[in-house]
Amino acid sequence: MNIEIFQFKVEPANVTLNEQTISKWFEKYVTDETDLVVLPEMWNNGYALPQLHQIADQDLTQSYAFISKLAKQYQVDVVAGSVSNSKNNHIYNSAFTVAKDGTLINSYDKVHLVPMLDEPKFMTAGSVVPEKFKLTNGVEATQIICYDLRFPELLRYPAKNGAQIAFYVAQWPEVRASHWLALLQARAIENNIFIVACNGCGDDGNTLYAGKSVVINPNGEIVAQLKEKEDHLTCDIDVNEVEQQRVAIPVFDNLRPELYKY
């Protein structure tokens, strides 16, 4: 499975420029071999939080139309990061995935809003956990957003139910870059799962983002990784490694949920 990760600087409150960047990168980097493209968190407006009540997407209308057109044009699935999204009079941090035929195959609203970036002051937390969904090629996946990475309970559920890849999209800050990699590797190891993580980069005037987008195999080993600057990452993975790892280390067969406490 050939995956393309786009790590770029999201311009706050400038959806037009961000869409132009994504379109240019599709044209430059997507090839006939590409199966799937991954975008970062909040790629439409970035963390222009005080302005979101005016500029957030409405029910994913603009974001989905834009991504759907690219998915069909280039015949690739797109894990479309996440966007600021207004629905039911609330603003959410909404992730979604589009199949190469243009259909919406998954959506998820960020459950844990990050206090360090003031998300709870301007956005509403989702109330539904991430589910497993099927990519065009039949691979089972799930997608999770940034601060959610610090809560291992979220991935355990879809992984236990067969997800082979977890896509994490983020605007993770440089000041906590070491946490980013350590937590991603932990999620891969404890769930015997591929981790594909796309982060933003650059300085938006308030926060310096870490970059360091990465692909990690089910044994917790880094397959490929970017540095802190704008760049793309092309990586081939064999999802059969997931089942091999789960046979070798059968953690899901050995769970004792009746004993676990908080």
Automatic annotation (TrEMBL):
Stretches assigned to coiled coil: none
Pfam families noted in UniProt: CN_hydrolase
Domain CN hydrolase: 1-239
Molecular function terms, GO-annotated: hydrolase activity
Entries under InterPro entries matching the protein: C-N_Hydrolase (IPR003010), C-N_Hydrolase_sf (IPR036526)
Residues passing through the membrane, by range: none
Keyword tags: Hydrolase
Family: Belongs to the carbon-nitrogen hydrolase superfamily. NIT1/NIT2 family.
Identification of the protein by name: Carbon-nitrogen family hydrolase
Organism: Staphylococcus gallinarum
